[in-house]
Write a structure and sequence with these properties.
Blueprint lengths: L5 H9 L10 H7 L32 H10 L2 H23 L31 H37 L1 H15 L3 H12 L3 H27 L3 H8 L4 H37 L11 H8 L8 H28 L7
Helix pairs in contact: 3-12, 4-5, 4-12, 5-6, 5-8, 5-10, 6-8, 7-8, 8-10, 9-10, 10-11, 10-12, 11-12
Length: about 350
C-alpha cells in the first residue's frame, strides 16, 4: 500500500487532518453506530425516515381519533361496514320523516303489487308500502337491540370488574352462576323467558340484556386479570388508592377499546336475535313494521310475491353483515395487539 504523502503525515501528527482521516476516526464511527431501536424509524414500507436536525421542532403526535381514522381508511371492508351501519342508524333516527308512505296505510287495490317507481320495493298482502315499513322498522331494530346491549354492558362491566379483581371464591361463585346462563342456547333461553314474561318491547329488551350480561362480564373479567398485574395498577396500590379508584380510574379506562369491540359484536347478534324472535311471533307484535315480523307474514306469499320476503330479509342480512364488518374493523383499529397498525 502506498504511504501517505509527507504533508498528510504531518497533518495527522498535528491533528489538523480532515475528520475522516484522523487516527481512530473509524473506531469512533463504529462506536457511534445506532443500536437496536436507536436509529431512524422506518415507515411501514421499510424506507428509512431521515432524522430531524438539532434545531428542528419535533412533530406533534396525532390525536388518537386521527390515528383510528387513518387505520380505518386502510381497511375497505371495515369502512364499508361502518358506512352501511351509519346509513341504517340514520334511517332509525329519521325514518318516519323519510318514509314515502305511512307504514300503516292499507289499500286493497294495491295488494302484492311488484316493485315499481311509485313503490320501489312493492307492496305486501294488505297493500302497504314495503319500503316505508323497512325504513320505519329500522328504529325498532336499533332501539330494542341497542338498548338491550347497552344495559348488558352497563350491568356486565361492574360484574366482570369485581369478579376479576377480587379473585378467589368471589370470582369462582360469580363465574359459576354466569356459566349456568351460558349453558343454555341463546335462542332457546330467549323463547323460554318470553313465554313466561309475554311478548312486549320491554320484555324483549330485558331478554337481550339477560342473554348478553354473562358474555360481557367474562370479557371484562379476562381484561381485569391481565391489567391488575400491570405496573400502573401496582403503583396505585402502593399509593394506597381505594379499590373503587383502581377499578374505575385505572383498570376500566384501559379496558374500554376491547369492551367497545365486544359491545359492537353483541349488538350484531342482538339484531339477529330480535328479528328471529319477531319471526317466531314472540317479539314485536302487529302492526309494527318489525323486519322479522314482515318475513313471518310474507311466508304464505313467497311463490306469488317473493319481494315481500326478500327485501326485509335482505335488510336484516345487510345490517348484520355491516355491523360484523364494522366490529372487525374496530378490533383491528383499536387493539394493536391483535392486528398490526
Amino acid at each position: 500500500m502506498t504511504p501517505p504523502p509527507d504533508d498528510l503525515n504531518e497533518q495527522l501528527r498535528t491533528g489538523q487532518a480532515p475528520d475522516e482521516l484522523r487516527p481512530g476516526a473509524f473506531r469512533d464511527e463504529v462506536l457511534s453506530l445506532p443500536g437496536h431501536g436507536e436509529g431512524p424509524a422506518d415507515d411501514p414500507a421499510g424506507v428509512p425516515v431521515p432524522q430531524a436536525g438539532p434545531d428542528a421542532v419535533p412533530a406533534r403526535r396525532p390525536k388518537q381519533r386521527t390515528l383510528y381514522w387513518r387505520r380505518l381508511k386502510r381497511r375497505p371492508a371495515a369502512m364499508f361496514g361502518t358506512v352501511v351501519f351509519l346509513f341504517f342508524f340514520f334511517l332509525a333516527v329519521f325514518g318516519p320523516l323519510l318514509a314515502p308512505y305511512d307504514y300503516t296505510d292499507q289499500n286493497a287495490a294495491l295488494r302484492l303489487k311488484p316493485p315499481a317507481i311509485d313503490h320501489p320495493f312493492g307492496t305486501d298482502q294488505f297493500g302497504r308500502d314495503i319500503l316505508s315499513r323497512i325504513i320505519v322498522g329500522a328504529r325498532g331494530i336499533f332501539f330494542l337491540g341497542g338498548i338491550g346491549t347497552l344495559l348488558a354492558v352497563l350491568i356486565g362491566t361492574p360484574i366482570g370488574l369485581a369478579s376479576g379483581y377480587a379473585g378467589g371464591w368471589v370470582d369462582e361463585v360469580i363465574m359459576r352462576l354466569l356459566d349456568v346462563l351460558l349453558s343454555f342456547p341463546s335462542l332457546l333461553l330467549a323463547l323460554v323467558l318470553l313465554s313466561v314474561l309475554g311478548p312486549s318491547n320491554v320484555n324483549l329488551v330485558l331478554v337481550v340484556t339477560i342473554l348478553y350480561i354473562p358474555m360481557i362480564a367474562r370479557v371484562v373479567r379476562s381484561l381485569v386479570l391481565d391489567l391488575k398485574t400491570k405496573e400502573f395498577v401496582e403503583a396505585a396500590r402502593v399509593r394506597g388508592e381505594r379499590r373503587s379508584y383502581i377499578l374505575f380510574r385505572e383498570v376500566l379506562p384501559n379496558s374500554l377499546p376491547p369492551l367497545l369491540v365486544e359491545a359492537s359484536m353483541r349488538f350484531s347478534y342482538s339484531i339477529f336475535l330480535v328479528a328471529s324472535l319477531g319471526f317466531l311471533g314472540l317479539g314485536v307484535q302487529p302492526p309494527s313494521p318489525d323486519w322479522g315480523l314482515q318475513i313471518n307474514e310474507a311466508r304464505s306469499f313467497l311463490s306469488l310475491a317473493p319481494w315481500t320476503l326478500l327485501f326485509p330479509a335482505g335488510a336484516i342480512a345487510l345490517l348484520v353483515i355491516a355491523t360484523s364488518l364494522m366490529s372487525d374493523g374496530l378490533r383491528q383499529v383499536m387493539l394493536p395487539g391483535v392486528a398490526r397498525n
